[in-house]
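Thread amino acids onto this structure.
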């Protein structure tokens, strides 16, 4: 069951990143502590696109991973059964597959599922899609700062 619009907005406020480093425009659905879906539209005016790649801009693959980490962090932060940490950090990557590219005008759908917790460590499986085409799959570990 997805969270209310108020919880979706609260989840967005839990991101510690400044606006220039947010790769989620909005949360579409959220089951707190379990799974969530966010969206990011590649506008085309992002500063890093000028150099990646000139004449044929694409969102860098590492930023696809970062988008997944941001959605996973919001899912984890909203878990009512576990304490939250204000500044979760990406601490490990496994099985990362960058299967495609996002270009200006594309909207990424980023899905994250929490797969495990151990004290202040959170494991998540993330995938990203453009329409129905998978462009990323990864297993991430986030570390909460106590």
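Threaded sequence (146 positions):
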């Amino acid at each position: 069951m997805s969270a209310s619009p108020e919880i979706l907005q609260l989840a967005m406020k839990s991101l510690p990143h400044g606006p220039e480093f947010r790769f989620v425009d909005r949360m579409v659905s959220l089951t707190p502590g379990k799974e969530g879906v966010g969206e990011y539209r590649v506008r085309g005016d992002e500063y890093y696109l000028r150099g990646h790649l000139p004449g044929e801009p694409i969102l860098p693959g590492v930023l696809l991973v970062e988008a997944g980490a941001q959605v996973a962090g919001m899912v984890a932060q909203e878990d009512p059964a576990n304490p939250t940490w204000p500044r979760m950090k990406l601490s490990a990557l496994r099985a990362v597959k960058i299967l495609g590219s996002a270009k200006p005008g594309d909207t990424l759908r980023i899905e994250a599922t929490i797969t495990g917790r151990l004290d202040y460590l959170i494991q998540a499986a993330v995938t990203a899609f453009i329409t129905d085409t998978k462009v990323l799959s990864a297993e991430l570990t986030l570390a909460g700062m106590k």
